[in-house]
Amino acid sequence: MTIREVTNYIEELAPLAYAESFDNVGLLIGDYNAKVNGVLVTLDTLEETVDEAIANNCNLIVSFHPIIFNGLKRLNGNNYVERVVLKAIQNNIAIYATHTALDNVNNGVSTKMCEVLGLTNCKTLIPKKGIIKKLTTYAPTEEAIDLRQALFNAGAGSIGNYDNCSFNVNGKGSYQGNENSNPTVGDKGQLMFEDETCITITFEAYKEAKVLKALFENHSYEEVAYEVTTLDNTHQNVGMGMIGEFSEEMNDVSFLKYVKKTFKTDCVRHSALLDKPIKKVAVLGGSGSFAISNAIRAGADAYISADFKYHEFFKAEKKILLADVGHYESEQFTKNLLVEYLRKKISTFAIILSEKSTNPIYYI
Fold first, then answer.
1. For residue 358, which of 327, 337, 336 has the smallest C-alpha distance?
2. Where are the beta strands (DSSP E) in the chain?
3. Cβ atoms of 293 and 303 closer than 8 Å
4. Same-domain check for residues 73 and 204
5. What pLDDT is recorded for position 161?
């Protein structure tokens, strides 16, 4: 199996198009056509991570965080990023990063946080905009059923819990080919009126190439009339963070002790106790201070994330209990998620969970 085949599986779970614009995701080091001996899954890629891959005969590291985030101007080994990149190249080890692509999917980082906490009735906290597109095309009415099915098969027409969604209007289409045309129906230079069906169908932006390929391959006209527009609608199953509920409420002190134990941390930084029950909880892996207002608007009693700065705790405004469990701690279960997923997809070689902690923060 090639690296491309492995990453295709990963991108079924976390399409790269879902990543934030500032991010650096995908294959950072390596050749997509290289054969894979084994895969090491980790949260971060450090020098010891590359050593672990070598020891386990893994030539592909799947990392949550990208080791290359900003542009590299030289590779002299002067810092840990350059040393990791050099060591990986010297040992023919590829590195692939998922980061915010996995943050934004419905079964990603925040969903795993909900799972370990035991939250139910979970939904996306900040649904993402600009990733739904709409195709409008026109086909001979007698061909509309087959064309529509081909578009469905290509991944178009899914809305939330529903598939095969489209809107169809029958009407009359007109066309007149010039001397260089080769019309399917009628003759060049002849004004034609045909019974046509207007098909309108939505799809996720990353599926555009596949959807258009299905359109062109299954349409009989020499020139296919179509429009693709990007919608401002939010995607209810794609976006940052999740919000869910405990089956039974607990008091704020018990909640914080439970969070501390669940995320295996020596310290939970939190805002002022509100002396009210905690039942509805929002979560977001990694640096999540930007979503405090979203958690409040969603009616969360508490919000679990990381990297809150001093003044950001004031944003709680006695409306919500903020709990900062630490960046690494909030994302630590992500590599388990990836290992579980890949082991279901691939059985021809080892998928290994990195045993090394890459947390750079210690407590005393």
1. 327
2. 26-29, 38-42, 60-63, 94-97, 120-129, 132-140, 167-176, 191-204, 226-230, 234-250, 269-270, 278-287, 302-306, 321-324, 350-353
3. no
4. no
5. 85
* Sheet strands side by side (includes 60-63): 26-29, 94-97, 60-63, 38-42, 350-353
pLDDT per residue as tens digits for the range 299-311? 999 999 999 999 9
Ligand-binding annotation for 65, yes or no, is: yes
Q: 86 lies in a domain?
A: yes
- Residue-range definition of the domain harbouring residue 193: 131-231
Residue 360 lies in a domain: no
Q: Write out pLDDT tens, residues 167-183.
A: 999 999 999 999 899 98
Beta bridge partners of 38: 350
pLDDT at 325 over 90: yes
Place of tokens 């630490």: 326
Distance between CA atoms of 358 and 143, rounded to whole angstroms? 56
The three-class DSSP label of residue 109 is helix
| CA–CA separation, 209 and 236 (whole Å) | 22
The secondary element (H helix, E strand) that includes residue 69 is none
